[in-house]
Write a structure and sequence with these properties.
Layout (H helix, E strand, L loop, with lengths): L3 H19 L6 H30 L1
Amino acid sequence: MASIEQARAEVDRCMKEALAASTSDRGSAADVEMRLWTILLALGRALMTLFFATRARRA
């Protein structure tokens, strides 16, 4: 299982990637939307990992 620090780092990485994709000058709106969809799925996974890591520490 990932540590809380690792999980937080992944959340931060995904957020930075999403912000970068949404402010990029490259690609059409459809291209950016597809990229954001992939990033947001990864962000959701990272947030759930953080949730479970936090709960595991409390147990």
